[in-house]
Amino acid sequence: MRLGTIIPRRDGGNAADKPTVISLGQVWMDVMLDVDDMPQAGDFAMTSHTKPTPGGSYRTLDAASRMGVRAQHAGVIGDGVWATAIRMLLRRNGIDHIGENLDGEDSGFRLVFQDEEGRKTYIAHYGAEANGDEHTFDAINPPHGAVVHIGGNTLMNQTAAGLDAFIRRAGNDPRKRDWTLVLNSTNALNQVSDKMIEDLVLARPIWSCNRQEAGTLADRLGVHIDESSTMTVGGGFDKSMKLLCDELGNALRAPLVVRAGSRGAWVRQPGGQVEHIEGFPTKAVHTRSAGACHTGVMCAMLAKGWSLTDAVRIANAAASLAIKNSDYGVPVCPSYRETMALLEAQ
């Protein structure tokens, strides 16, 4: 399967024309801690290893960068210990920071405890990334052909005011933009204001989510999905996914991508039929989702000029390789060459 022969790609002949992915998401540091059992109040516990890793939209940008596009982080970074680590990792991995700098406050972090049964417990401290305002993204003007990614984490705190201002500036007609808007949904939509939800739906971005997030979004929008007709022996999951994408896609009136792990993803264009893009089943060796890798690769391929369907197919391949590789429990996105090699082998 030689995808490179399907459509022309807009890879750009010089630096100025290089395909660009900009993320309006937030980046913090995750401190991963393996424990035998979570200690009770006043108790003591040991961890077998710990390693700070960048979280939030970093992994989306890292995946995009590995696909050979210009990756830019437009979120807020502070000036403390965690912020310094974030800046170093962005530079090391070729990701430009084009967002605001907040003096006098560090970036945030999360403690992620995982016990022997694989259950995770989170303790989060929000920092500079969450303390933007309505002007946070005023200076962000996407170049022609760019893909702008919105992380679900940006919808729920003070920085959401700046995101809402950006969304309203983008307008409600995707055909009048010369760039593409991609939104990662979140399971925490109960923390997002009605006004923000309304503005996002009106903007009609490409919605990217996993099955659980899609269900949460449907609930928040009041979309009732009657799955009784899908409860058959064999094929029930596929029918359920198609129904979910149809009903949710009708409500959004926008492109929708719903991921389902090794089964790949279901894609629906406005007014079109739901298309199932098969995945690449493989054995997972990590404790975190490869969803960020999938979204980052999809954004990169869209920036290069691929169709949404082909971008999702390439992202499926990258995600399948990512879950086979782990850096202390975090899936590692493959390179562009490795991803295309898997597709060529099919």
Automatic annotation (TrEMBL):
<keyword id="KW-0418">Kinase</keyword>
<dbReference type="GO" id="GO:0016301">
    <property type="term" value="F:kinase activity"/>
</dbReference>
<feature type="domain" description="Carbohydrate kinase PfkB">
    <location>
        <begin position="20"/>
        <end position="326"/>
    </location>
</feature>
<dbReference type="InterPro" id="IPR029056">
    <property type="entry name" value="Ribokinase-like"/>
</dbReference>
<protein>
    <submittedName>
        <fullName>Ribokinase RbsK</fullName>
    </submittedName>
</protein>
<dbReference type="Pfam" id="PF00294">
    <property type="entry name" value="PfkB"/>
</dbReference>
<dbReference type="InterPro" id="IPR011611">
    <property type="entry name" value="PfkB_dom"/>
</dbReference>
<keyword id="KW-0808">Transferase</keyword>
<dbReference type="GO" id="GO:0005829">
    <property type="term" value="C:cytosol"/>
</dbReference>
